[in-house]
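Input/output pair, single chain:
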Amino acid sequence: MEKFDKEQLEKQALGAIQSDSDIVFIQDVIAVLPCSSATFYNHNLEKLETIKDALHKNRIEIKKRLRTNWMRQDENATMQVALYKLLSNDEEKDSLTMQKTDITTKGDRLNSVIIEVIDGTTDKEQ
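Output:
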């Protein structure tokens, strides 16, 4: 069984992310490393801010390129929007969504049944 050094794996991951701007997800990083996904997660590499920040930077760069393409109306806009949604945060997704539903119940349960009692009897008893 091969032993992997956490710091070395982090350096390799960062090098891969920085050299390939298409690497935007943890699974992309794992695919280019010489270790298994179990080793990657056992070393808690997915929790490292350095790796998260590098992936975030790649996502930002792709989103900037997509917006530039939209302004020029190049390529397939539908595919670009789908990719943008895949890479976007919640606020950006909300902006792209045609419908938005915000339900506030102030702590009340949804779908509750209300039975009104009239003169001490329910509707079934009358």
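The chain has one domain: 6-98. The chain has a mean pLDDT of 82.
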